[in-house]
Design goal:
Layout: H1 3-8, H2 12-15, E1 22-28, E2 31-36, E3 47-52, H3 59-74, E4 82-87, H4 90-95, H5 119-135, H6 138-141, E5 146-154, E6 163-166, H7 175-183, E7 188-191, H8 199-207, E8 210-218, H9 231-242, E9 255-264, E10 271-272, E11 282-283, E12 289-293, E13 296-299, E14 306-308, E15 319-327
Parallel strand pairs: 3-4, 3-5, 5-8, 6-7, 7-9
Antiparallel strand pairs: 1-2, 2-4, 6-8, 9-15, 10-12, 11-14, 12-13, 14-15
The chain binds zinc ion.
Amino acid sequence: MDLLTLLLENKIEDTLCFPPTIKSSWLAEGVLQLLPQERPQEKKADTLIISAGIHGNETAPVEILIQLVSQLAQGSLPLQHNLLLIFGNLPAMREGRRYLDNDLNRMFGGRHQNFPLGNESSRAIELEAIIRQFFSEPAVMASTKHRHFDLHTAIRGSCHEQFALLPYQTREYADDFLQWLEDSDIDALVFHNTAGGTFSHFTSEHFNADSCTLEVGKARPFGQNDLARFSNITAALQDLVAGSCAIKRDKPALKRYRVVDAIIKQHDSFQLNIPEDTKNFTALPESFEIASQPNQSWKITFPANFILFPNARVAIGLRAGLLLVQLT
Ligand SMILES: [Zn+2]
């Protein structure tokens, strides 16, 4: 049976073995802690968290993570750093849905309290507790560099196929973290302007991790992903896990954007005035009314004329799009 099937059938814990150089423990269903037992004296271990499937229908990241797990288990990928691998929302993955009750990636940082208890709010509580426990591991406490990559795929097409969303933080973004993102050959960075309930925001705010939500491409069902399209991300993560620092950018320079405004749906009659298939990072004309609801409308004002994650079908109170300015 392949690892993905074992994961989805909750049999992976009993089946998977790691080389004696790796101390493995499952902290919860779909949460695997791997600590290197031996490494060269001169190399210091950092701490890495890689998560996937926080949205259950975003399968490519899950397949990327399975690939890493498989290589670590076979011993073909050496482990340099303390590593926590998280398969986020298994019940939703089994049903091929983004979530069962509510969006898990809006619940972190205690925001799960604002939702009725359900599949996702229970998982948010569990994942927050696990992250706390992981950061109190002596090996993790001894490391100075903490990074978290939360892998996703976008619902729609995008003018920049691969991009990272960096959570809002008051401290500087670490240069070597931005450099890694640059070297991973993704196309764009987006800097958030406010705090949010995402998983990457949680690890950034509460554990000072260099964190990002990494959008690796478009969402497709299991088995329909062309993993070659994500080979740059896989290679960059392998490089990081092994501590080899061998990747170099092969594409034109990264584009950078900053979030300026969020379009929040507050009413049933909310309207988004762009076609459903509008791509992420589409540039819109000056003064165009992009969205409206009773007593409120959003008009494009330069230079904040790029739209990200437009989606009129979100629940009331949630974000129906972000307006971005391109940084030069
Ligand atoms: Zn997602």
